[in-house]
Amino acid sequence: MRYKITFSYDGSKFDGYQKQKHSENTIQGIMENALKHINNGKTTKLSSSGRTDKGVSAYMQVGHVDIEVNITPYKLKRAINSLVPDTIYVYDVEEVDSDFHARYMVKEKTYIYKVNVGEYNPIEKDYIYQLCKELDVDLLKTEIKRFIGRHNFSSFCSNQDKKEDCNRVIYNASIEKKDNYIIFSFTGNGFLKYMVRIMCGYLISVSLGKQESNKIDYYFKNTENKVTTKTAPAEGLYLKEVKY
User: Fold this and answer.
1) Apex CA 242: angle with CA 21 and CA 105, to 5°?
2) Per the residue annotation, which of 53, 66, 126, 136 is the catalytic one?
């Protein structure tokens, strides 16, 4: 039976989402160990909507898994939560058709990025980027809209990303300020490695006067030129929502 699993996690406590040879402290690795225990000791793969890097958290991550034992979604949810640390939580499990795929059937994802522009807060340092400098919100609201649409994001992704097709569609991109916090939001059909963090780092650099404004279209047209501004650190990034 195939199950769709929706869960959240505190990425600051792990070495990233993807299972690694040299670390047992990954979200996928811990989840798969729990699923193996539930699935009568059989190695059980958890396929997710995508990978998040070390330090990146998720309000909503989605995966699918095939379980051979007879178990209800409710009991599977309880069983997983009893076997994983309290920095991971499964909040929904449902039976799905055997052709459901958590990655390939995604219609859109939303990421948010949180920045503190006020006084440094040591309690929040693992969860919100402590920039502690004022940003020009009006300028950011103008600039971020330039990302909306179908574009080649080769300039806004990691050199480690070897995908031949770097075209992605951004459906919505916005900025919101609440007290001393600025929240960037991007909704799209998919994202390349470090893409959101590079876009946020670029926008921050524009606001701080370290990068001239109105150059995003230039990078879309000159895809051989990588953005050289500082990539925003991982701790402010969250996978907020996945839609199918």
Assistant:
1) 80
2) 53
CA dist., res. 96 & res. 166, Å (int): 30
Domain extent at residue 31: 2-96
**Does a structural domain hold residue 103?**
no
Say whether 53 is catalytic.
yes
Do 88 and 175 sit in the same domain of this protein? no
Residues 149-165 as b/e (b if ≥16 CB within 10 A, e otherwise) read: eebebbbbbeeeeeeee
Question: Does 231 lie in the same domain as 134?
Answer: yes
pTM of model > 0.85: yes
CA distance 27 to 223: 33
Predicted confidence (pLDDT) per residue in 163-188, tens digit: 779 999 999 999 999 999 999 999 99
User: Is the domain of 22 the same as that of 60?
Assistant: yes
Under a CB-based contact definition with an 8 Å cutoff, are residues 240 and 111 in contact?
yes
| pLDDT of 81 | 98
101 within a domain of the structure (yes/no)? no
pLDDT-based confidence at residue 160 (cuts at 50, 70, 90): confident
Of the residues 41, 66, 96, which one is the last residue of a structural domain? 96
Domains contained in the chain, number: 2
Task: Identify the band that residue 90 occupies on the pLDDT scale cut at 50, 70 and 90.
Answer: very high
User: What pLDDT digit, counting tens, does each position of 5-40 carry?
Assistant: 999 999 999 999 998 888 889 999 999 999 999 999
Residue 3 neighbours by CB distance under 10 Å:
20
Residue where a domain stops, chosen among 96, 123, 154: 96
Q: What is the mean pLDDT of residues 83-101?
A: 98
Residue 102 domain flag: no
